[in-house]
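Hi everyone, sorry if this is the wrong subforum. Our group has a chain we'd like a structural model of before ordering constructs, and none of us has done structure prediction before. Sequence below.
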Amino acid sequence: MAFAGFDMARYPGDTAMQSLWESSNLYWVGYYLAVSGPGLSDKRTWSGKYKFLRGVGWGVAPIYVGKQPSSKKLELKRGTEEMEGYLDGVEAAGLADQEGMPNQCVLYFDLEVPTGSKPWMNYYLGWAKAILDQGYQPGLYGSFLTARSIVGFLRERDPRTVPQIWVFNLQKFPGHQSYKDINEIPSPDPNIGVGGATCWQFVQGSKIAWPGHLLSPVDFNSSVYGDPGTCTSPAT
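Answer:
Right subforum, don't worry. Here is the predicted structure as C-alpha cells:
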C-alpha cells in the first residue's frame, strides 16, 4: 500500500490544511525547513507549522534546501566539500530541532538536478554524517536518473549514510495533472519511480481545487509511509 501526498513552495494556510485533511485522501505533505537565502522566502512560510500539522493528523516529510552541484559557494570549498556538508547538516538538524521534530526523524535533502558530481556527493556524505550525529536520519529527494549511483557511492564510503530515497520521475504520468476528485488522488508504488525509493514525486505543476480553496502549483507524491518523516503509517 502507498499513501498520497503533496508538496508546494508556499504554506497553504492553517484553514486550507485542516480542510484538505478532512476533504481528501492525502496523508502527507512536504515541509520546508527555514533555510535563508535568495529565492527561498516562500519556503520559509512553513516555519512554525510542524506541530499544528501533526496535530491535525498530517504526515510530514521535512525538506532541507542545501547546496546544489553547481553552487558557487560549494566550488569555493573545493577539497573540503565533506566538511561543508557536515556544517550544513548541523544547520538542518538545528532547524528540525527548532520545529520540534522528533529524534530519528528523516530529513530530506532537496537535490534539484541529476548529478554524478563526486564533489557534491562528498558534500552530501558530510551532510548525512552530521544528520546522524545530531540524532536524525538522512533522506534524499532527487532524480530517478542518478538516485542509484548516489546510493552506491554512499554505500561504499559509509553505509550508515545511505538515505531514504524520495525520487522524482515525471515520465510515467501526464504532466500538470489536476484531479477533479480530491478523494481519488493516485498513490502509485514508489518502486515504479525507481527501485528502492520509499517516496515518489510523479506529477509537478498541478493544482488542488475544492470548495472554497485552490492551491497551485502543487506537486503530487506517493510514499510507502503515511508519515515519511517518522517512517510510520496509520492503521488502515
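For your construct planning: Residues 141 and 166 are 4 Å apart (CA to CA). Strands lie at 3-7, 26-32, 59-64, 106-110, 137-143, 164-168, 199-210, 213-223.
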